[in-house]
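F.,

This is the one I mentioned.
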């Protein structure tokens, strides 16, 4: 089979204005970035707000593994299949970060004959949104240190500055740094750190904002530090929100590209799914819902992270009511959760397959708690055997779990028709969507509902620091915010080595902090990395560009 980039280059792309015209979007609100990418003025939403919304399809997965489950590929392929059926479908995705692209994970534009294009541009600088977020983030960082140097009228405690720096690259050397060395002319030395841009609160803010005014308000509410009295200092206290919004004035507009089969795709924003909510922008999804019969939206990591946060945080914020959930599963992931070692992953192993099914079934049970119909999409790989596939399908059917085989990597939209038909059928069924907790619940009640209902913990343990933070947050008026639990993606639990479907363990909350601008509280459990590092042999060393401008080694 040809590589992803070879397949991408074999596709004859349509001019982006032809893609937007197919959606009925007038040219005056389309801002092209070259021939094949564009932004759409978010204010166009106002002009079409009376139009009926399409169906909202959420794509999630079982607990992920290092092998990749093909969630993005499945999301794109489902939209292709829906369009082949004569439905009007749009896929909405997060933008790729340069860190994974240059690191080990690679790009995030799908694969095979189920991609969004032009994949090189999308995976690299795209329309500059990540650069805008980094600039706005670092402007605030610079303003904080300038304020501390010049009189410090807000009485910011230098030992209690929460706001880091940001860069869109994996660089472990920046996880813990000291700034302002070299004498008093450079400011007051203090410990600091960098986060990758996808982990910036500004990325979460961009994706949750409804318009420029909302964006500016959220930027102003970022909690940057404590003062010497222990009170929170916010970005608006520095009068930073105006300039930050200026830097984000174009980034707020959703991006539109096309798929390998020439259908529209909206790709906008890229927040992490553990320390943030892990979904593309509200604006992109709202716009797509007005323009399509079906909108396929991917959520980050497994259903216990990205999907849960969509249901409990994003949907209430935006007023969304999802119609169907697709849970992506692979035989490889099932075998990993059944105890198979990496070197044996492609060998048939019926015992491990059946054992690993507990992980998938627990995700199914959890999604049903939100009152939504679902289908399991089995993303087939070349090494999967018919006996394994048939066993999985039989076991799921015994449990009345709708199932569809997907071969969209190899066959494009044709390989997703079974899945698309089931999604359409399920979208007509009654639903009773309900988040798992109320925002008004006390912080500990929200945490324990998630820990016990979704993560299946037996009890929740809080460190003394976490208890102190909870008291402080509730005292300062942050108790009514939703929560975003930052934990490992590899397990339901807070231990990445606890695979399968662990239950009745102790879930430990070690710390909390407010994302006041984004509008949620981050609950830290386990060791979450906000600045990844490059591997021993990163993807970057395999990349090159030919004299005629063709990029090599990007995938």
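My design for it:
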């Amino acid at each position: 089979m040809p590589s992803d980039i070879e397949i991408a280059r074999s596709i004859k792309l349509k001019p982006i204005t032809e893609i937007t015209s197919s959606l009925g979007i007038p040219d005056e609100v389309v801002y092209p970035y070259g021939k094949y990418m564009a932004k759409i003025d978010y204010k166009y939403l106002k002009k079409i707000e009376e139009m009926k919304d399409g169906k909202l399809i959420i794509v999630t997965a079982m607990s992920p593994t290092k092998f990749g489950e093909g969630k993005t590929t499945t999301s794109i392929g489902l939209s292709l299949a829906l369009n082949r059926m004569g439905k009007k479908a749009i896929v909405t995705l997060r933008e790729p970060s340069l860190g994974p692209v240059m690191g080990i994970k690679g790009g995030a534009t799908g694969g095979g004959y189920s991609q969004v294009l032009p994949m090189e541009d999308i995976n690299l600088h795209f329309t500059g949104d990540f650069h805008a977020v980094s600039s706005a983030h670092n402007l605030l960082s610079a303003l904080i240190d300038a304020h501390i140097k010049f009189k410090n009228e807000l009485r910011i405690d230098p030992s209690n500055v929460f706001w880091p720096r940001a860069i869109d690259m994996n660089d472990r050397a920046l996880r813990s740094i000291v700034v302002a060395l070299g004498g008093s002319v450079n400011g007051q030395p203090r410990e600091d750190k960098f986060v990758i841009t996808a982990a910036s609160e500004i990325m979460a803010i961009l994706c949750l904002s409804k318009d420029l005014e909302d964006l500016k308000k959220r930027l102003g509410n970022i909690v940057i530090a404590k003062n010497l009295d222990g009170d929170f200092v916010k970005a608006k206290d520095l009068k930073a929100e105006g300039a930050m919004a200026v830097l984000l004035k174009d980034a707020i507009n959703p991006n539109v590209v096309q798929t390998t089969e020439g259908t529209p795709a909206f790709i906008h924003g890229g927040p992490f799914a553990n320390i943030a909510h892990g979904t593309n922008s509200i604006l992109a999804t709202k716009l797509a819902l007005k323009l399509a019969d079906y909108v396929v939206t991917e959520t980050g990591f497994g259903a216990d992270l990205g999907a849960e946060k969509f249901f409990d945080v994003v949907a209430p914020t935006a007023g969304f009511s999802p119609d169907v959930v697709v849970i992506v599963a692979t035989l490889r992931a099932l075998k990993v959760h059944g105890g198979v070692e990496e070197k044996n992953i492609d060998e048939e192993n019926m015992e491990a397959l059946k054992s690993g099914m507990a992980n998938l079934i627990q995700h199914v049970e959890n999604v049903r708690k939100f009152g939504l119909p679902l289908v399991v999409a089995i993303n087939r790989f070349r090494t999967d055997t018919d006996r394994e596939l048939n066993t999985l399908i039989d076991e799921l059917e015994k449990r009345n779990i709708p199932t569809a085989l997907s071969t969209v990597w190899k066959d494009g939209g044709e390989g997703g028709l079974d899945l698309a038909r089931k999604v359409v059928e399920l979208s007509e069924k009654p639903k009773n969507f309900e988040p798992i907790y109320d925002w008004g619940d006390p912080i500990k009640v929200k945490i324990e509902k998630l820990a016990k209902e979704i993560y299946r913990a037996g009890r929740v343990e809080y460190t003394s620091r976490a208890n102190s933070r909870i008291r402080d947050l509730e005292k300062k008026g942050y108790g009514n915010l939703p929560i975003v639990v930052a934990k490992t993606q590899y397990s339901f639990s807070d231990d990445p080595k606890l695979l399968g479907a662990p239950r009745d363990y102790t879930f430990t909350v070690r710390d909390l902090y407010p994302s006041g601008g984004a509008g949620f509280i981050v609950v830290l459990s386990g060791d979450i990395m906000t600045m990844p590092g490059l591997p021993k042999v990163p993807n970057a060393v395999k990349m090159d560009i030919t004299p005629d401008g063709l990029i090599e080694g990007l995938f």
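The radius of gyration is 23 Å.

Talk soon.
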